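User: C-alpha cells for both sequences below?

Assistant:
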Amino acid sequence: MTDNADIAALIRTIPDFPKPGIQFRDITTLLLDAKGLAATVERLAALHPGPFDMVAGIEARGFIFGAAVAQALGTGLVLIRKDGKLPGRTVAVDYALEYGEDRIEMHEDALVPGCRVLLIDDLIATGGTALAAIRLLRKAGAEVGGAAFVIDLPDLGGAAKIAADGVPVAALVPFADG
C-alpha cells in the first residue's frame, strides 16, 4: 500500500487564494499528469470495499473523479449539482453555509431505492456540502456505503462529521495545515 506521496506531490499549493491565510490545494496540476490521474482514480476506487451500484459526484470537481471511478467500478454516475442546473424533475436539500444557505439537487429518477452509493469529491473540508449530499442520497432512498476524497483537510473536521453520520470516509492525501 502506498502512502500517496506521489499524488500529494502533484497537488499544487497556492497561498492566499481565494483570500489571505488560505492555502488553496489545486488539483489541476494532478489532472495534467496522466500517471498521477490514473493512480488517483485507481486508489479512490479501492478505498471502500463495495460493492456499489452507483457513484455520486459532487459538482464540479467531483464529476471528474466520480466519472472515472464509476467507470473503474462498472457503475453509472449520479450528478449532484447546485440548485437550478439540472433539467427535469429533481429532489433537493438545503444546507447551511458560513453565511447563509445553499441547495443541491439531483434528478429524482437517478437512483433506485435501496441502491448502494459511493460519494466522490476532490476535497473534504468542513463537510457541509458532502453531508448535504449524503442527506440528498438518503432522501432518494439510497444507502451511502462510503465517501472518498482525493484531499482531506482534517483540521476542518469534515471527515469526522461524515464518519459520525455513519458513513465510512477515506481520503488519499491529508493536508494538516488547511
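Moving on to the next sequence.
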Amino acid sequence: MAKIRIKQVGSPIRRTKDQRATLIGLGLNRLHKVSELEDSAEVRGMIRKVQHMVEVQG
C-alpha cells in the first residue's frame, strides 16, 4: 500500500480532547513531528478531523 507522511504544524493547546486523541492516534504529539502511515480511508478521516493542525507531505 501507499504511504502518507503527515507533519504536525499546529498546537493541540485549547483543542478538544477528541482532536488531541486523534493526533496521538496518528503518531503525532509534538510540533514538527513527522509520521508515516498507510494510506487508508481511516487515516484520511483522522487527517480530515485535524486538518487545521497537520500538513500532508505525500
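User: Anything stand out in the second?

Assistant: The radius of gyration is 10 Å.
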